């Protein structure tokens, strides 16, 4: 029964009906423990089936906090074996069977998959997803909850979070900013009539004056009231008179909620209490099987105690499992054990679960109390060290913070100076690397190098150090040590090859390309017929990188093929595979092979999603964004660079992505938006010492052009370090700006460089660039028209428009009889700019040609509308049509070869452009639009 919550209940029930009708919503229910949050939400959910909604329910647990996603895995029934491919993929991922190498974030990958799973489940049937005790959920769960909350209007989903008030955690507090006040249900004390009604129901009659006064002390908290009345009944302090009024007879009444709970527990037999203490170690909800394991008894032996606990109102059934009736009851049992006893119990439970091959997270949950109590002197037992070594890799991927805590203690307690300590140190360094503490990872690895002799472990440690140094930019001073390592006795070819690869990688980090080339080649020679995928794959990776930097794009392609053939399918080399794929995509792009480039990037993206590498995912997205920018698909480019949040990307990637966005906005005359992107990029650029990022440099130069400062725009481009092979994409604009301000020497220098590049290459845009620069230098309109044709063949519309523009100017400046040609080129350029929606260029060009007396430009189609159906970009239009067909985001993603996240971004753009709130509204708008346009 539920008393005194009619208003709240009817709001929740109405929201469930809304969800069933396709209008999703995110809701927070908060209030003191025992105030009736779970009871209220459960009562509302009881109406879900009739409304046509399925219900998923999971809860946070105090002990589960260091381990990611348990509440959601539980709610969405992601268990060891299912027959659902999505769920299987998630549990496989968390089980560590696909590992994206060091720095992989399996929890993030699983989170991504869970969001997709929710999408798919909602596609089957509208849903209510409840996360109870959200204040105890891990951060990844909270992050997923908030991602779902932000996109919930795209789904037939009622998302409910239940938590205690005034959370101290910032991530929880931010949920209250996402969920508006209208969607917040704050539960306070029950009103007096409701209190009396509840007491009457519990006591079996109308409360008399004394009982009513006592009940009044319970602060309108139904849990307290329940515990209180039950306690009174147990000690026979209640008496019903003939008129049906219940009155107090005794004096000994509990005067706080904890006391009332203690009273309930006090009535249990010692045997039942023992079993319940063991259960309290497992959590609020637990499986009977686990209880059997940790108590080392049979089910038959446990049954009497469990029955007693249920009869006494301590335990309740929860699906196939059991649960404490309220978390406060579990806490009471747990807290009555002294810390040392508790830790010993937990340790025994961990051992029993590990012996029974329980999942990694269930064992870890029992081991963690041992290390989270800072003053604990309990050493990590040898079995736990062995277990940790076995599961380290998946544990680090899944719960790096927990892995750090456990491995740190294991390193401290394991016997010194042997392979075990070395290996443990390796894993601890990996774990630190996984949580982003690069400095600590490096320190651990260096310290272990001082004492470990085993060459396998040593090479592993060197690898960690090189990786850390690569990130912190202190690679140079480790080179002597690496060279020295090569001379140590007892090395096999495989060890030497790996060390040579590390030296090659270090040179590559340092930009010493020739040395990188030399050592990578030496590594391959050292290996000879010996097979070592790691060494071969990385050596080829360095060689392909060298080729890219040298601009030898065609030469890089076969290196990718060879490397990929070696590393493909090896889970330990996933990260390398990702890097190879991304670089391959960039290389295809540089060769004007756009389709191949997009295909390679899509493969990288898919693998990154699947294996949890958000950093690589954002690199792949960024590569796609730049390809789309060059190919003139600007709306799609804007969507791609917007997909991953800035704080999850490498700073250089953030700079590139905001550069792409700024370039597009500048060309479109959306100056304020462009400048916002530049401001953000500036913050990140500073963090990486203003490293050269091509797109950002282009955008910064464009900003000065916008401000009519061509000299400064040129200066930005020429400031790129001389001799830098990167920056080829900047040459065209450099020559153009230099020509504009009459800096003939610079034009001539660039022309010479472009000619040299084109001489060795058959790539269309390189040849076009040479023609463009020469045309600018010689003011030769015919040459510039040929450049425009070249850019057409390279499928680069912006460059093509610029070449046509230059040709038009050259014609106009030349002779009067060329006016016809000038007008033709001018018209063509305007058309191309208009197709890109580059309004700034259109306006600029028109003004310029008014000065030549060429006024009548063609009619320009301009997507002026910013709202409504006609404002949708072609891709948005396609996606809207699929939404109308009833496809989910993952299905649309599959159809259009986009990532589900990109589709999500597009759908939210569609919603705001149409000014509507749900997918159903999109369908309605589509129907309206169709009938309106006949
Ligand atoms: N409105 C209510 N009417 C009757 N009983 C209630 C009500 N709210 C809560 N209870 C009872 O009080 C106890 C505590 O409620 P619960 O929902 O678990 O609290 P919370 O989730 O806020 O900690 C439960 O036994 C529940 O059945
Ligand atoms: Mg509750």
From TrEMBL:
Residues 865-930 form the HTH luxR-type domain. CDD domains: LuxR_C_like (cd06170). GO terms for cellular component: cytoplasm. GO terms for biological process: regulation of DNA-templated transcription. Keywords: ATP-binding, Nucleotide-binding. One of its GO terms (molecular function) is ATP binding. It comes from the Bacteria. PANTHER family: TESTICULAR SOLUBLE ADENYLYL CYCLASE, TRANSCRIPTIONAL ACTIVATOR DOMAIN. This is Regulatory protein, luxR family. It comes from Amycolatopsis tolypomycina.
